[in-house]
Specification:
Oligomer: heterodimer
Helix content of chain B: 25-40%
Shape of chain A: globular
Structural class of chain A: alpha/beta
Radius of gyration of chain A: 28 Å
Distance between the termini of chain A: 74 Å
Order of helices and strands of chain B: EEEHEEEEHEHEHHEEHEHEHEHEEEEEH
Structural class of chain B: alpha/beta
Largest interface: A-B, 54 and 53 residues
CATH topology of the largest domain in chain B: Rossmann fold
Shape of chain B: globular
CATH superfamily of the largest domain in chain B: Class I glutamine amidotransferase (GATase) domain
Distance between the termini of chain B: 68 Å
Number of strands of chain B: 19
CATH architecture of the largest domain in chain B: 3-Layer(aba) Sandwich
CATH class of the largest domain in chain A: Mainly Alpha
CATH architecture of the largest domain in chain A: Orthogonal Bundle
Number of domains of chain A: 7
Largest sheet of chain B: 10 strands, mixed
Number of strands of chain A: 39
Strand order of the largest sheet of chain B: 10-12-11-13-14-19-18-17-15-16
Chain lengths: ~1050, ~350
């Protein structure tokens, strides 16, 4: 059946900002879909609010809109574009929900727009728990006994009927937000109430828990001729009970006999047929480990995170095929792009093992509740491929880029047996380290199975690794042991640890004995057919399949897993760097470990190595490929951190040299540069004793910014106002010591801004200056920012440009860099220089039309800015105003303070663009889900120091028709200034008012909470409790008066003035 | 114990032995199924062959009595990359390695099975030999090259005496060329009263039992080495509903004037997509064959091609134009592999019932 000719223009809906449960995988799927549709000759209109995506590049679609994903905004675009159809199944849950709400709004019927891929009925059947249950009953498929409830009492009654433990699953929430496992009445009462609140339809499913079952996933495809097939099967290391996004996953299934596998395959295909999905679909199943009994857990009627993983695990491009199927093509007429010879109707056969491990944000959120359950908490994931499961697992562990570089963890080693068992019984992100440690202590597989219900096969992988540790330990410098270690995925670093040697020595020993990895191809067919896929992974085996070409090549190191502080922006830059390399005629080789991304789509680069980004693994590829050099400027801190080691091993880093990178990153060297250039920066000092810290803080003068020198990205950075707070900080965060100095900086009040600059060694191009809306003190990644700057005079801009030019040239930057400034008393102070691409690169690229990563790459490869047609200096400012707003995932994480500070907390961002600043602001807020009604109630809970500052904000909200609510002090102050204020009781305060502060938030009386109280991070503080309550009840929350003022200003702009004449 | 796999092209793969500690020689073939190693090893179609698993790990769920496809497998050896240390499954009765010892089948692990598969893919199926590392290599190679492929494999694997598989509905005679138990399981599910006859049963032997239908099973080797069976089919198809599977399909083709040929490396695995020509429907099928029916040799006046593999166009199914007789190259009985085509057994039942009705009418 050929493709449809009755439709011409198709709208693709993206997935919006990155949040927990919805990460870069939808940039990958959306990009693939757009390209596939254009390949078939359709005109593609793309809408997404997230500028940090490849899919919003102008070359991906015919028409690109970076606009809020709200019904209003998307409807406006539809009325401009009149698409014939919408493809909503590639933009995650956001895309599907948008399709549903557009349909409910009636615009699809009105304009005769068709939904492609999955019909609304199917979306409803898969997403609405009752309809899903009905469908499963009709199909005679077993599901755990369950009931949809709308009140907590109903939940409790049903649980009494079926018995505990039960699982709460709120309807229509992302990543299972708000759900959880309950062992008793109390837990259920609490979790059900929360879940009902978070569900947009106040609906939860209460379900009998099948904890302990094997959790199996199938990625299946179907076309309109009802051809169905399985792309990939996956099995979770952790049994049912932990969200699949938070589980360690292996592909293909590892413990199923053929009978079990085929039973579950049949179910999955029956389901996709019953739902009549045209495209891809994800089926989650639970299998009793002691019988053929299974349960259907969930069906996702769309491309999902698991499909991205399945695509990378098999090489089969699910999203691309799904898009082609959506326009009427069938699986048996689409060519399999991997082999080029077979058809897309082909169930991939793997001849390797894939391991996925989630990447959690608990390194940033030290106080967060790390318990894993039905609510996903990971921000990203890594994948690794090996010829043994042990190899895949160990490669995945070292891909995580966490403190643990292998399965050794200091904490686990130090734990008592009792603590160890507790850690094993109550799963957290770090359970695998404790399990491994347990084997080292002699626990048996049976004992650990009893505690965890994890399959003996999986436990044995860890046991095997510990046995190998012993064997390696016993045989220092023994080649046979070393070879065995490598086959099972041990890194040189770990072997060095076990042999009390050095990583470099192990490497030398290996190389001199020709013990080097080979690279095998991912080809979807287990070598049955000849394939041309340039997609490889390393292993220790006989035959190497990756043959370097004769062309000159450049290696680009990617940015690894998505985490807070290092998001999809860096993948964006990586992909653009690849494009530029190819444009200049070189072969572009990519290394990365993140299965969600566009950069790990093998069709993006000339060659893809899916590998951990450690020195050993990168050097191995370099020694095979012998590229001209390596580009590290686009892979975030991951790539930059590798630079020094690479140079030590004789590798050429292209662009800014390692010594110059060092001069930007080393504090003392950097101070010298600043002094030599006569630039200004806040006074900063270093101390190595507690007393020293207190002393220099007093010298500099409070408030000061303190942070340990050895952590990056604002981790453990705080603003302290006096000595008491400083001592408290030192007690909680970091002990100053000789090898752990503490940095103390003067904290200057003022507006912050940042620039990205491209330098060819001589000329310096500044595509734009971004002014932060929040004052200094909020991490730049968490700040709203506006381009062009709204409050800077020409003089200040000139200061910024001059300083940037001087710094870029002095630091001998070749390529791209990012500089942060603070404007204090009309003078620009340099806060920080990052000698690499920053997270604002995609944002500024979209705004200015300068493909910054590409320009920088060309400069790195020797072209001058002049040759590329750019003048030195600030690029002419555009007329349109663009506002970037951060997006947070607080509702997914317990015990994380949402108060914004110097430590980054956001997971994603959106962009709002319009002709005025206020409209752009409004759009940015809307994109970040801060769309407020025309009138309502705002609760002001303000730190006593902020009273003066809150007045103009309160006045703005009052003017647009918002009733003000405040506690005693603030209320009195605002009343004094003539505002109408409702007084509310503080937490635990009785009697003075009828209004209880937490109750009015919970009851939905409040539309916005502005809270600047007690940001000491204590989870028991009032400020924290208020913020947490707002987040739990989905009430927009702002913790900076600057942001609140901007919101007020934007709202004023959409409201008619109500000026009294007399 | 260190062992070697040597191939007739002179290549040597070093690995470690497991299973039975014997020297073995056979045709080296690969299968791409990611599950079902037990079913594969016990499949008599692998008689005389050394089986390479492309899945890097086997043995991970042990072995159990339910999943045997024959009682005395004649597979000559097993080659894998990694043998699971621990197997864990609720049905498991022994480990895969112990099972191989019991069945006297040698195995070799630690082999770069991907490199080996690529070799077989490009050079075609080859003879190979699993030997001890201490064996004299030159001697081993000369032994290997001197080995003549056994032409009479079916005789080795077929039952020597008839036996019943009782049921109460339809009387079906199964001709055992190397039958997989899953065929009997499918017939039992449909309550057939089955009698299994040896491969050399004549048409007369069959007619004496007055069956409602005849099923020709899968089996090893070259269909052309069974001229008597071809003769039998030519007689039986005129009188009784007939269904051929795999080798049975090839014999059915030969009986009706078509030709067969030896494929370069065959189809072994279960992700082969097959199109039913009449409906356009596509099934993923379990396959295990090194010979195939030559498409051009099929006389369209005698038979229709009913199924084809979508990628290489292999003739996957035939139907006689005048008689109630048909065949498929793949295994609708799966085991191991997908169940997509299992309803073909129902087609056979339907054919039997229609024929019965006609006769009774």
């Amino acid at each position: 059946m050929p493709k449809r000719t009755d439709i011409h223009k198709i709208m693709v809906i993206g997935s919006g900002p990155i949040i927990i449960g919805q990460a870069a995988e939808f940039d990958y799927s959306g990009t693939q879909a757009c390209m596939a549709l254009r390949e078939e000759g359709y005109e593609v209109v793309l809408v997404n609010s997230n500028p940090a995506t490849i899919m919003t590049d102008t070359e991906i679609a015919d028409r690109v809109y970076i606009e809020p994903l709200t019904t209003d905004s998307v409807s406006r675009i539809i009325r401009q574009e009149y698409p014939d159809a919408i493809l909503p199944t590639l933009g995650g849950q956001v895309g599907l929900n948008m399709a549903m709400s557009l349909s409910e709004a009636g615009i699809l019927d009105e304009l005769g727009i068709e939904l492609l891929g999955t019909k609304l009925t199917a979306i409803n059947q898969a997403e609405d728990r009752e309809l899903f249950k009905e469908l499963m009953n009709d199909l005679n498929e077993p599901i755990p006994p369950s009931k949809t409830v709308n009140t907590t009492q109903e939940a409790l009654d049903f649980a009494d009927e079926i018995g505990y433990p039960v699982i709460v699953r709120p309807a229509f929430t992302m990543g299972g937000t708000g759900g959880g496992l309950c062992d008793n009445k109390d837990q259920l009462a609490q979790i059900a109430a929360n879940g009902l609140d978070l569900s947009p339809v106040t609906q939860c499913l209460i379900e009998k828990s099948i904890t302990g079952y094997k959790e199996i996933e199938f990625e299946v495809m179907r076309d309109h001729k009802d051809n169905t097939m399985v792309v990939c099967s996956m099995e979770n290391f952790d049994p049912v009970g932990i969200h699949t996004g938070d589980s360690i996953v292996f592909a293909p299934t590892q413990t199923l006999a053929d009978r079990e596998y085929q039973i579950l395959r049949d179910v999955s295909l029956r389901l996709i047929s019953a739902l009549k999905i045209e495209g891809g679909c994800n089926v989650q199943l639970a299998l009793d480990p002691n019988s053929f009994n299974y349960n259907v857990i969930e069906v996702n009627p769309r491309v999902s995170r698991s499909s991205a993983l399945a695509s990378k695990a098999t090489g089969y491009p699910i999203a691309k095929m799904a898009a082609k199927i959506a326009v009427g093509l069938t699986l048996d007429e689409i060519k399999n792009p991997v082999t080029g010879t077979t058809f897309a109707e082909f169930e991939p056969a793997l001849d390797y093992v894939v391991a996925k491990i989630p990447r959690w944000p608990f390194d940033k959120f030290a106080r967060a509740n790390r318990k894993l359950g039905t609510q996903m908490k990971a921000t990203g994931e890594v994948m690794a491929i090996g010829r043994t499961a042990e190899e895949a697992l160990q490669k995945a562990v070292r891909s995580l880029e966490i403190d643990e570089k292998d399965l050794f963890s200091d904490e686990a080693q130090a734990a008592t047996d009792q603590k160890l068992e507790e850690k094993i019984m109550h799963p957290q992100d770090d359970r695998i380290f404790y399990l491994t440690e347990a084997f080292r202590r002699g626990y048996t597989i049976e004992e650990l199975h009893e505690l965890t219900k994890i399959n003996a096969y999986f436990l044995d992988l860890l046991k095997h690794i510990t046995e190998l540790e012993v064997e390696i330990c016993k045989n220092p410098n023994n080649l046979e042991s070393l070879e065995k270690a490598k086959k099972y995925g041990f890194s040189d670093m770990t072997v060095a640890k076990l042999w009390n040697s050095k990583e470099s020595k192990i490497r030398a020993l290996r190389k001199s004995n020709k013990l080097i990895p080979v690279y095998k191809m991912v080809d979807t067919c287990a070598a049955e057919f000849e394939s041309q896929t340039p997609y490889f992974y390393s292993t220790y085996d006989m035959e190497n399949e990756s043959v370097p070409s004769d062309r000159k090549s450049i290696l680009v190191v990617g940015s690894g897993p998505i985490r807070i502080g290092q998001g999809v922006e860096f993948d964006y830059a990586t992909v653009h760097s690849v494009k530029a390399i190819q444009k200049l005629g070189y072969e572009a080789i990519v290394m990365n470990s993140n299965p969600e991304t566009v950069s790990t789509d093998f069709s993006v680069s000339d060659k893809l190595y899916f590998e951990p980004l450690t020195l050993e693994d990168v050097l191995n590829v370099i020694e095979l490929e012998k590229p001209l050099g390596v580009i590290v400027q686009f892979g975030g801190q991951t790539a930059i951190n590798l630079a020094a080691g690479l140079v030590e091993n004789g590798v050429k880093i292209l662009g800014t040299t390692v010594e110059d990178l060092d001069r930007a990153e080393d504090r003392e060297l950097f101070d010298q540069v600043i002094n030599n250039l006569g630039l200004k920066q806040p006074i900063g000092k270093t101390a190595t004793t507690q007393e020293g810290v207190v002393k220099i803080a007093a010298e500099i003068g409070y408030p000061v910014l303190v942070r340990p020198s050895y952590v990056l990205g604002g981790r453990a950075m705080e603003i302290v106002n006096d000595e008491i707070e400083l001592n408290d900080y030192l007690e909680h965060n970091a002990k100053a010591a000789i090898d752990h100095p503490i940095l103390v900086d003067a904290y200057l009040e003022g507006m912050e801004c940042e620039v990205d600059a491209i330098c060819d060694g001589k000329d310096v191009l500044l595509p734009g200056i971004m002014e932060h809306i929040e004052h200094a003190g909020v991490h730049s990644g968490d700040s709203m920012a506006v381009y062009p700057p709204q409050s800077f005079s020409e003089d200040i801009k000139q200061q910024i440009v001059d300083a940037t030019k001087k710094l870029a040239v002095a630091l001998k930057c070749v390529g791209i860099m990012n500089i942060q400034f603070i404007i204090h008393d009309n003078e620009a102070y340099v806060l920080e220089v990052n000698p690499r691409a920053s997270r604002t690169v995609p944002f500024l690229s979209k705004i200015t039309g300068i493909e910054m990563a590409q320009v920088a790459t060309k400069v790195i490869l020797g072209q001058s800015l002049k040759e590329l047609g750019f003048k030195s200096g600030l690029y002419p400012e555009s007329k349109t105003i663009h506002v970037k707003a951060p997006v947070f995932s607080f509702s997914k994480l317990e015990d994380v303070d949402s108060y914004l500070g110097p430590e980054m907390k956001s997971t994603g961002e959106v962009m709002g663009s319009d002709h005025t600043f206020e409209k752009a602001l409004l759009k940015a807020f809307a994109g970040a889900k801060m769309e407020l009604p025309m009138s309502g109630n705002v609760l002001l809970t303000i730190d006593s120091n902020d009273k003066e500052a809150v007045l103009p904000v309160a006045q703005r909200f009052s003017r647009v028709g918002y009733r003000l609510f405040a506690t005693n002090g603030t209320a009195a102050f605002l009343k004094e200034h003539g505002l109408h204020v409702m007084k509310v009781n503080k937490i635990g305060e009785d009697g003075k008012s009828d209004l209880d502060i937490l109750k009015i938030i919970k009851d939905g009386q409040i539309q916005l909470v502005i809270n600047t109280m007690s940001h000491d991070q204590e989870v028991t503080s009032d400020g924290f409790t208020i913020r947490q309550t707002a987040i739990e009840h989905n009430v927009p929350l702002l913790t900076s008066l600057n942001t609140a003022d901007a919101l007020g200003r934007a709202m004023e702009n959409r409201t008619f003035a109500t000026d009294v004449i007399k | 114990m260190k062992r070697y796999l040597i191939l007739e092209d002179g290549s040597i793969f070093k690995g470690e032995g497991f299973g039975a500690n014997i020297t073995t020689t056979g045709e080296v073939v690969f299968t791409t199924g990611m599950t079902g190693y037990q079913e594969a090893v016990t499949d008599q179609s692998f008689a005389n062959q050394i089986l390479v698993f492309t899945n890097p790990l086997i043995g991970n769920y042990g072995v159990n009595l339910d999943d045997y496809e024959s009682i005395e497998p004649r597979c000559k050896g097993v080659i894998c990359h990694e043998l699971a240390r621990t197997s864990s499954n609720w049905r498991q009765q022994s480990s895969f390695a112990d099972f191989l010892v019991q069945m006297n089948i040698p195995g070799i692990k630690g082999i770069d099975t991907r490199a080996l598969t690529k070799k077989l893919r490009s050079a075609g199926t080859m003879k190979g030999r699993i030997i001890d590392s201490t064996d004299d290599l030159e001697h081993a190679f000369s032994q290997l090259n001197a080995t003549v492929v056994n032409k009479n494999l079916v005789a080795q694997v077929s039952t020597s005496k008839p036996y019943p598989n009782p049921g109460s509905k339809r009387n079906v005679v199964v001709i055992d060329f190397g039958l997989k138990h899953s065929i009997l399981r499918e017939l039992a599910k449909r309550d057939c009263n089955t009698i299994v006859l040896p491969y050399n049963a004549t048409a007369e032997d069959i007619f004496k039992l007055k069956p409602d239908g005849v099923l020709l099973t899968n089996g090893p080797g070259d269909p052309k080495s069974l001229p008597a069976a071809i003769e039998m089919i030519q007689k039986v198809e005129q009188k009784l509903p007939l269904f051929g599977i795999c080798l049975g399909h090839q014999l059915f083709a030969l009986a009706n004037g078509a030709d067969t040929f030896k494929m370069k490396f065959g189809h072994r695995g279960f992700n082969h997509p097959v199109r039913e020509i009449a409906s356009g429907r596509i099934c993923f099928t379990s396959q295990n064959h090194g010979y195939a029916v030559a498409p051009d040799s099929v006389d369209n006046d005698v038979m229709n091609i009913t199924y084809r593999e979508i990628n290489d166009g292999t003739v996957e199914g035939l139907r006689h134009k005048n008689y109630p007789a048909f065949s498929v190259q793949f295994h609708p009985d799966a085991a191991p592999g997908p169940h997509d085509a299992v309803d073909i057994f129902d087609d056979f039942m339907h054919m039997i019932d229609t024929r019965k009705d006609e006769r009774n009418a």
